[in-house]
Amino acid sequence: MSVLYIVFPLALLIVAIAVAAYVWATRSGQLDDLETPALRMLHDDSDAPHKPPREAGSTGSATGDDRSSAGTD
User: Fold this and answer.
1) Whole-prediction pTM value?
2) Is the pLDDT of residue 25 over 80?
């Protein structure tokens, strides 16, 4: 029974923190628009530069080791 003197105020404190976080989020505009950020990823970025794919015979290796063997004996 004496454990209730610890658990009940602790539970009230946690609830108060959760309510304060919710009030802060709504006042700061965190919950204003829930649809636009989810739909924004579906739009194609036409401003982004498009890089052509690298050809198989281009300079540089796939492993990133671009050291030349010229000049070694």
Assistant:
1) 0.48
2) yes
